[in-house]
Automatic annotation (TrEMBL), chain A:
Keywords: Amino-acid transport, ATP-binding, Cell membrane, Membrane, Nucleotide-binding, Transport. It is a peripheral membrane protein. SUPFAM superfamilies: P-loop containing nucleoside triphosphate hydrolases. It comes from Streptomyces ardesiacus. One of its GO terms (molecular function) is ATP binding. InterPro entries: AAA+_ATPase, ABC_ATPase_HisP-typ, ABC_transporter-like_ATP-bd, ABC_transporter-like_CS, MetN_ABC_transporter-like, P-loop_NTPase. PROSITE patterns: ABC_TRANSPORTER_1, ABC_TRANSPORTER_2. Residues 11-255 form the ABC transporter domain. It is found in: Cell membrane. Its main location: membrane. Pfam families: ABC_tran. The keyword S-adenosyl-L-methionine does not apply. This is Amino acid ABC transporter ATP-binding protein.
TrEMBL record, chain B:
Keywords: Amino-acid transport, Cell membrane, Membrane, Transmembrane, Transmembrane helix, Transport. PROSITE patterns: ABC_TM1. This is Amino acid ABC transporter permease. InterPro entries: AA_ABC_transptr_permease_3TM, ArtM/GltK/GlnP/TcyL/YhdX-like, MetI-like, MetI-like_sf.
């Protein structure tokens, strides 16, 4: 199964293990995400789904296994039978091709909405400022916030902040978008506006992995639903299968609690 | 009138037709008025005693306030403060970075430095540096006494002392910045220096500025300690005069007024610096 050379594969995760001290969080995860597909990861708290997502752009180092995105080994280079960790500069370069959206937005509070979005294109990709500003304004329009370019994050609602965070991730024109529980910090009435934006991106063919508790969103948008529990992938498949006809007892137990 | 203020404070327009409801009357505070009056009377008495007491010799104060020797002393105090603050915070920032690094040796060195230099009184430190020639008579073939004049000793002693405190202030500022900010910057591919300069430091400054302002004012006045090693700062300059003329109190008033004036200016400056770093926050106090 030499999926690494397959041009159709965007993300290839193989036998990934990760421990935090004595806590074994990921216990051998294998996952393939095809280009243009949306993968939604479900699972109870502490199942390792956020940690898995964070290993994909090397915010967490893995203890074993390997991850490649669009053919690039993430965080390491192979030399013989070893994986040597890349210097930070290389890792940062890889990250500019992978967008990451955090649960708590993590917008920069001292920068305006526009500055939040242009910061990375200008300083990490060395884009001319004028070009970055044009792109940022286009992206703000796309997430429905064209009129808030000059606002500071604290002047926006949670849903608006998360949409800015999505625009900020898109500004790097990533090949892959990672969402870490993008609606979990939002008031219930604001969840819809953020899911709408993510759904639009999905329909336009953006490759993404979304960790979430929103099973409705999974049913509507996902190509593949992955259910994780206790550091392992318990089952995966099309949303109709995993959500409606789960084969595993643990999946059934989880779905009966959240649905 | 009452309905006006009520409407403003409640932000809900009072509909004129609801006159059947009882009117709201704020609670009165007669105690506050009495206390304020008592304090004002005491202040007036104190001010009167200062201005009408001839022993202050305000005429002498006026004569010396802008004399050359006093202004030279003031100038030394000002630049010594500026140099000590700049060098102290530069070294302190380095120490804070050491303390927060992943390298246990750097962490230990930083901790040890802060422990040592906060433990030794600044007066003792200055006297030790002043007598360093007794420990190391020669450095690279030059007599230590020639190398380290009183002013150099003052700069070194005060800077090393300042850096220990600055390190803690800067460290506190960096720790006050949410860890997620760095993570977001890393996820966006921002380099180490850019993360520090553009993301962490501006946010840390909000926590750093108030105690740093405290330190600046403390250092301005604290430099007066260098008079013990005969450096001619503001205090030493007025002492030189009153040793000659015996007009001790008026000369100390000259120093007091200058220290107060400069401190006030620094306080105003701090207000604007804080305002600058409050960007993006509604709460500025």
């Amino acid at each position: 199964m030499s999926t690494g050379s397959d041009t159709d594969v965007m993300v290839d995760i193989r036998d990934v293990h990760k421990s935090f001290g004595p806590l074994h969080v990921l216990k051998g995860v294998d996952l393939t995400v095809r280009t243009g597909e949306v993968t939604v990861v479900l699972g109870p708290s502490g199942s390792g789904k956020s940690t898995l997502l964070r290993t994909v752009n090397h915010l967490e180092k893995v203890d074993r296994g390997l991850i490649s995105v669009d053919g690039d080994l993430i965080g390491y280079r192979r030399s013989g039978d070893r994986l040597r960790e890349l210097p930070e500069r290389e890792v940062l370069r890889q990250r500019t091709r992978i967008g990451f959206v955090f649960q708590d937005f993590h917008l920069f509070p001292h920068l305006t909405v526009l500055e939040n979005i242009t910061e990375a294109p200008v300083s990490a990709l060395k884009r001319p400022r004028r070009e970055a500003v044009d792109t940022a304004r286009r992206l703000l329009e796309r997430v429905g916030l064209a009129d808030r370019a000059g606002a500071f994050p604290r002047q926006l609602s949670g849903g608006q902040q998360q949409r800015v965070a999505i625009a900020r991730a898109l500004a790097l024109e990533p090949r892959l978008l990672l969402f870490d529980e993008p609606t979990s910090a939002l008031d219930p009435e604001l969840v819809g506006e953020v899911l709408d934006v993510i759904g639009d991106l999905a329909r336009q063919g953006t490759t993404m992995i979304v960790v979430t508790h929103e099973t409705g969103f999974a049913r509507e948008v996902a190509d593949t639903v992955v259910f994780m529990d206790d550091g392992r992938i318990v089952e995966q498949g099309p949303p109709g299968d995993v959500l409606d006809r789960p084969r595993h007892e643990r999946t059934r137990a989880f779905l009966s609690r959240v649905l | 009138m009452t309905s006006d203020t009520l409407a403003k404070s409640a932000a809900v327009p009072q509909s004129p037709d609801r006159t059947d409801l009882p009117r709201i009357v704020p609670h009165r505070h007669p105690g506050q008025w009495t206390a304020a009056a008592a304090v004002l009377v005491l202040l007036a008495l104190a001010l009167n005693s200062v201005l009408r007491n001839d022993a202050f010799q305000w005429g002498v104060v006026a004569d010396w306030f802008t004399s050359d020797s006093v202004l030279r002393g003031l100038w030394l105090t000002l630049w010594l403060t500026a140099v000590v603050m700049a060098l102290g915070f530069a070294l302190g920032t380095l120490l804070a970075a050491f303390r927060l690094s992943a390298n246990p040796v750097l962490r230990a060195v930083s901790w040890g430095y802060v422990w040592l230099f906060r433990s030794i009184p600044i007066l003792v430190q200055l006297l030790l540096w002043f007598n360093i020639g007794a420990l190391y008579p020669q450095v690279l073939g030059v007599r230590t006494v020639d190398l380290l004049g009183p002013v150099t000793v003052a700069v070194i002693g005060l800077t090393l002392h300042e850096a220990a405190y600055a390190a803690e202030v800067v460290r506190g500022g960096i720790l006050s910045v949410d860890r997620g900010q760095v993570e977001a910057a890393q996820a966006l591919g921002l380099g180490r220096w850019r993360r520090w300069r553009r993301i962490v430091l501006p946010q840390a400054m909000r926590t750093i500025v108030p105690p740093a302002g405290n330190m600046l004012i403390g250092t301005l006045k604290g430099t007066s300690i260098v008079s013990v090693i005969a450096v001619q700062d503001l205090l030493y300059s007025v002492q030189l005069v009153h040793h000659r003329t015996y007009q001790v109190v008026p000369m100390l008033m000259v120093a007091t007024l200058w220290y107060t004036a400069v401190t006030s200016l620094l306080g105003i400056g701090q207000y604007y610096v804080e305002k600058h770093y409050a960007r993006g926050t509604e709460r500025t106090r």
